[in-house]
Design brief:
The active site is at 101, 211. It is a single chain. By secondary structure, this protein is of the alpha/beta class. It has two domains: 3-133 and 214-323, Malonyl-Coenzyme A Acyl Carrier Protein, domain 2, CATH 3.40.366.10; 139-206, Malonyl-CoA ACP transacylase, ACP-binding (Alpha-Beta Plaits, 2-Layer Sandwich). Helix content is 50%, strand content 14%. The chain is built from 14 helices and nine strands. The strands form two sheets. A five-stranded parallel sheet has the order 7-2-1-8-9, sandwiched between helices. α13 (290-296) links the parallel β8 and β9. α5 (68-88) packs antiparallel against α7 and α7 (116-133) packs antiparallel against α10 (216-227).
């Protein structure tokens, strides 16, 4: 669908699409849908040609899928494949788009802000730069549950003053759910203190500490690649991670993507913004249902749908058309 038609179709809906980030990947993703919709493998072939290696093979075999520079382009391509199938089947264009971390790039491709070819090359580089910014084993991330945001920030600041390195709030995912990132030993200290204060702490199986100041060296190099990439303002508004706002010019958009590497993902504020704008239905466009499950907790979201299997896609298509008054 052209950018203009997409923009016109999206304006009247109460639906937003959200695109997941790293961690949602799984071996064999989209295999069932690919058997029925050639657009899935066509999308992977397009992205693979641009990047120079077989992303579909990685997605289906799992070979190298846990390597950040592979995970990111595979996930982005999977999300865009689902987006294209949705539109092919007559799914409504959403009023807003948002993506969690890596998912912001999927949202920008869906909104015709950048091409799929450019995006997969960008996120492949993004993964490489992130991995090289912190030596293996020196960084870590953990989910802190059951404490309010202010308490998690307080713990991070206190621990950072006592040790070598830093630890910061990286993802504000929901009320009572904050992911921290930083120097591995300090992340462990915050986890210990969080448990002592009746919170829960879960170490995340990641190879890089995303969205913290340790990623600043990567961001500086990544900014150069962004400057060389053709980017336009999105045809559907994309809510940005760093400020839960919408860029009004391309320069601000590029800056926000650079800052995203070392600043917190403001997902709680992003979802609040969508609710404030009257969004009632959320579709998660990517493997899994993590973001859909988070959305289901929100007071003004009536329904949230994953669409990564045939049955889930069909359920969401019909439910959204009924909810938006397109069919009885």
């Amino acid at each position: 669908m052209s950018a203009k038609r997409l923009e016109q179709a999206a304006q009247a809906t109460k639906t937003a699409f959200v695109f997941p980030g790293q961690g949602s990947q799984k071996v064999g993703m989209l295999a069932e849908l690919a058997q029925q919709f050639s657009g899935v493998t066509d999308t992977f072939a397009e992205a693979s040609e641009a990047i120079g290696f077989d992303l579909w093979h990685i997605a289906q075999s799992g070979e190298g899928l846990d390597q950040t520079e592979n995970t990111q382009p595979v996930l982005l391509t999977a999300s865009i494949a689902l987006w294209r199938v949705w539109l092919e089947l007559g799914g409504l264009a959403p009023r807003y788009l948002a993506g969690h971390s890596l998912g912001e790039y999927s949202a920008l491709v869906a909104a015709n802000s950048m091409s799929l070819a450019d995006a997969v090359k960008l996120v492949n580089l993004r993964g490489k730069l992130m991995q090289s910014a912190v030596p293996q084993g020196e960084g870590a991330m953990a989910a802190i549950l059951g404490l309010d945001d202010a308490k998690v920030i307080e713990l991070c600041q206190a621990v950072s003053k006592t040790g070598n390195g830093s630890v910061e709030a990286a993802n504000y995912n929901a009320q009572g759910q904050v992911v921290i990132a930083g120097t591995a030993s300090l992340v462990q200290d915050v986890m210990t203190q969080a448990k002592e204060q009746s919170g829960k702490a879960i170490a995340l199986p990641v190879s890089v500490p995303s969205h913290c100041s340790l990623m600043k060296p990567a961001a500086e190099k990544f900014a150069e690649a962004l400057e060389q990439t053709a980017i336009e303002l999105p045809s559907i508004p994309v809510i940005q991670n760093v400020n839960a706002g919408i860029a009004t010019n391309v320069a601000d958009l590029r800056q926000a993507l650079t800052q995203q590497l070392y600043q917190s993902v403001q997902w709680t504020k992003t979802m609040q913004y969508l609710q404030d704008q009257g969004v009632q239905y959320i579709v998660e466009c990517g493997p899994g249902n993590v973001l859909a499950n988070l959305a289901k907790r929100l007071p003004n979201i009536e329904k949230a749908f994953p669409i990564d299997t045939k049955s889930r896609m069909e359920d969401a298509l019909n439910a959204i058309l009924v909810a938006e008054g397109k069919i009885a």
